[in-house]
Amino acid sequence: MSKVLVSDPIDQAGIDILSQVATVDVKTGLKPAELIEIIGEYDALMIRSGTRVTQEIIEAGTQLKIIGRAGVGVDNVDVPAATRRGIVVVNSPEGNTIAAAEHALAMMLSLSRHIPDANASVKRGEWDRKTFVGAEVYKKTLGVVGLGKIGSHVATVAKAMGMKLLAYDPFISTERAEQLGCQLVDLDLLMQQSDYITLHIPKTPETTHLINANTLAKMKPTARIINCARGGIIDEAALAAAIKEGKIAGAALDVFESEPLGESELRTVGKDIILTPHLGASTTEAQVNVAIDVAEQIRDVLLGLPARSAVNIPGLGPDVLEELKPYMELAETLGKLVGQLAGGRVELLTVRLQGELATNKSQPLVIASLKGLLHQALRERVNYVNANIEAKERGIRVIETRDASARDYAGSLRLEATGTLGTHSVTGALLGEKEIHLTDVDGFPINVPPSKYMLFTLHRDMPGIIGKLGSLLGSFNVNIASMQVGRKIVRGDAVMALSIDDPLPDGILGEITKVPGIRDAYTVTL
Ligand SMILES: NC(=O)C1=CN([C@@H]2O[C@H](COP(=O)(O)OP(=O)(O)OC[C@H]3O[C@@H](n4cnc5c(N)ncnc54)[C@H](O)[C@@H]3O)[C@@H](O)[C@H]2O)C=CC1
Ligand SMILES: O=C(O)C(=O)COP(=O)(O)O
């Protein structure tokens, strides 16, 4: 049975799902060294933001197949290191959207009405109504930085509260922004014109310290900023200084450069700052959502099924997978075949999508072809996650072409590879009940389902050659399951595809090429 380690607190609903297929150990609060020591036993790791999954941990996780992040941000996972090792990283892109958006809105209202400090003062026995005079958000301008899932919900609710909306997000369309009632502007204008600014972007090298002393200097002295996205997007020292010096009116932070927040200038800012301990996703509803969403994906991957929200398998969303899965199997088979025909050190792979496939997304098919191509060298180490990287590291160039006019089959895929044995091509299609058929080898039309062990020959189409090959194989005790010849012209060059029951014994290929008329012979294992 598989083993799953849950290293941050997650809802029981997730544990129940994992327990259907695995032994589940919940061990929270582990130190990095403790995690490194035990991770080697586990097939899957389930985390929230509390666990930093470093390259060292990934390398110690020799059995790991999947890392599941029960939440959105995967900035606490070394995704490139996981990808190199072929480990799927999944998250829950929508499970806590509402929770995080509502937290940002709660922060905005709390900040404008001094609720945390007013509450604390009443609890101390005071009745001070003058200190806590606030500001209305109605008719004020909210600047939303990042108009994705959370930013969009914040914008929708803020609009309903009568706020004017500006948004900065270089990756969304003007139409989408308009639909949400937002005017798209650049960051400078947003900083200058907003009364409230709320951040909803991922933490990346580009967004680290996006909000710094310079950008803060552009804000109105009456403006306030809210960060419920990621620590480190705002330069904390610059923010503390800007509030203390009265350059801006206040800030509300749920996330910090280093968590848990240690000694920090931020704690000394006073009533104009609100700090919460990364509570954005901490609602009962969100925790059930993310736990179920991610546990289901871990369960599926452990059962050999694809994950629906993998962050490191490009182009393989659930809808794409459903439609393309049979073609991906075809691509992988053709990749294995052409890789063995072309021999080692393949430098160039051309993937041609033909017929109705020409209108499809090609990326999953390219990944599947590369997975097949690299199988000979890497065996089980290559998968959909790392096939692209492994190919790049081996210097394999990929060219994609499309030919919608190829109409021999509804949709077909042609792979051509150049390696130590020259340039070879194979084409395949799905026939009948989506059964894989090889329809062309090196330009010669054939029609055979692939089998585990195959032999291909390039020979002259002349009488007696099939018989000679048959007796030669018989003398080596090789049983032929099926055989087909493909030729373009009578008595010209031809290709023979044979399915054999067992691997070809050593040395026989040399004997085959000695048969008069046979120019080349190739054996493959699929
Ligand atoms: N405080 C908490 O507990 C929670 C925090 N989060 C964080 O909230 C953030 C947003 O999450 P979602 O809305 O679900 O993500 P999303 O992917 O739906 O949206 C992110 C948006 O940011 C935009 N963006 C990316 N780079 C940008 C840049 N350099 N400048 C401006 N815009 C940029 C993207 O185009 C996208 O529209 C993430 O960092 C996530 O980790 C999410 C859930 C809970
Ligand atoms: O989903 C996210 O990105 C979050 O920041 C939530 O973090 P958490 O799972 O509550 O530790």
From TrEMBL:
InterPro entries cross-referenced by the UniProt entry: ACT-like_dom_sf, ACT_dom, ASB_dom_sf, D-2-hydroxyacid_DH, D-isomer_2_OHA_DH_cat_dom, D-isomer_DH_CS, D-isomer_DH_CS1, D-isomer_DH_NAD-bd
Catalytic reaction annotation: (R)-2-hydroxyglutarate + NAD(+) = 2-oxoglutarate + NADH + H(+); (2R)-3-phosphoglycerate + NAD(+) = 3-phosphooxypyruvate + NADH + H(+)
Cited Gene3D superfamilies: 3.30.70.260, D-3-phosphoglycerate dehydrogenase, domain 3, NAD(P)-binding Rossmann-like Domain
Broadest EC class assigned to this enzyme: oxidoreductase
Pfam families recorded: 2-Hacid_dh, 2-Hacid_dh_C, ACT, PGDH_inter
The ACT domain, residue ranges: 454-526
Molecular function GO terms recorded: phosphoglycerate dehydrogenase activity
Keywords: Amino-acid biosynthesis, NAD, Oxidoreductase, Serine biosynthesis
UniProt family annotation: Belongs to the D-isomer specific 2-hydroxyacid dehydrogenase family.
Stated name of the protein: D-3-phosphoglycerate dehydrogenase
Naturally occurring in which organism (per UniProt): Anabaena azotica FACHB-119
Source lineage: Bacteria, Bacillati, Cyanobacteriota, Cyanophyceae, Nostocales
